Amino acid sequence: MKKLLQEFSRVSGILLGSLIIACSVNGLLIPHKLLSGGVTGLAMLLQYFFQLPTGLTILIINIPIFALGLKYISKRFAVLSLIGMLGFSFFLTLTRKITIPIDDLILVAVFGGILNGIGMGIVFRKRGSLGGSDIIAVIFNKYSSFSIGSVLMATNGIILLLSAVYFNVQLALYTMISMYISTQVIDFVQEGLNHRKSIIIISDKQEEITSAILEKLNRGVTFLHGEGAYTHREKEIIYCIIKTMELPKLKDLVTRIDPKAFMSVSDTKEVLGRGFYVEDFK
């Protein structure tokens, strides 16, 4: 039953994200001749020039991509991507008459990017995709030295170039603004407000600091063996990962125990394991 609920939540999230993106495309981007990235951007171009429906065009373009993808990517990713692509095509058709009454192109680019980013963030958080360039990027990453981000960036670059050539540079720049905002929002939605920090602490009172972290923050601690380059003294380096909201409390604990302690704080994009929220991705 728990597995079934997880699958229902995942599919529902992918469909919700697809609906939000469709509202962004039909309500903001298309009325102002702006573009989205990847296959969606190509389908929008075809609609601008030949009045071909975006939803149907995305479906047709994705057929050979999925045929290729089934051979090179996992079946689970393919199924979730197929659900996202079909849902997105359906919602694009369903919302084609929706128009959000905003005339300022800056606001259109900003809010279009925000909506698009929210939708894509939800889809990615549920470990799905909308097919198209996502599958192409995964295939390139698997069989070449190109990263997924590099392939997606190159795809979006081609879309921007086509926009500049066939429309004008100004619309291409507005599209670039929208794409940039979208990528930032995607990261925010995936990470949420619960960012993590990697902490390294060097102190002569490592046992006291470790006990305080275990008792006051309820966080695991790992000792790394180190040696001072100048003194050649061996030390146990404290390593732990905490939530951002826990950082002020940790700083207070460390400075009260050892005001001379050395402490390094780094951003951590994702943490999977005991003590942190883990969704079942199997």
Keywords:
single chain; Alpha-Beta Plaits; 4-stranded antiparallel sheet; 10 helices; 4 strands; elongated; disordered C terminus
Order of helix and strand elements from N to C terminus: HHHHHHHHEHEEHE
Number of DSSP helical runs: 10
Structural class: alpha+beta
Number of domains: 2
Strand portion? 5-15%
Write down the overall geometry: elongated
Which spans have pLDDT < 50 for at least 5 consecutive residues?
278-282
On the 0 to 100 scale, the average pLDDT is 87
Report the strand count: 4
Biggest beta sheet summary:
4 strands, antiparallel
Radius of gyration: 24 Å
Summarize the structure.
This protein is an alpha+beta fold and 282 residues long.
Can you describe this structure?
It is a single chain. The protein is of the alpha+beta class and 282 residues long. It folds into 2 domains: 2-191, no CATH class; 196-268, Alpha-Beta Plaits (2-Layer Sandwich), CATH 3.30.70.120. The protein has helices spanning 2-29, 38-50, 54-72, 75-94, 105-125, 133-143, 148-166, 169-191, 206-217, 247-257; strands at 196-202, 222-227, 234-243, 262-268. Strands 2-3-1-4 form a 4-stranded antiparallel sheet, covered by helices on one side. Helix 2 runs parallel beside helix 7, helix 3 (54-72) packs parallel to helix 6 and helix 5 (105-125) packs parallel to helix 8 (169-191). The longest helix is centred in the first third of the chain and has 28 residues, at 2-29. The protein is elongated, with a radius of gyration of 24 Å. The protein starts with a helix and ends in a 14-residue tail after the last strand.
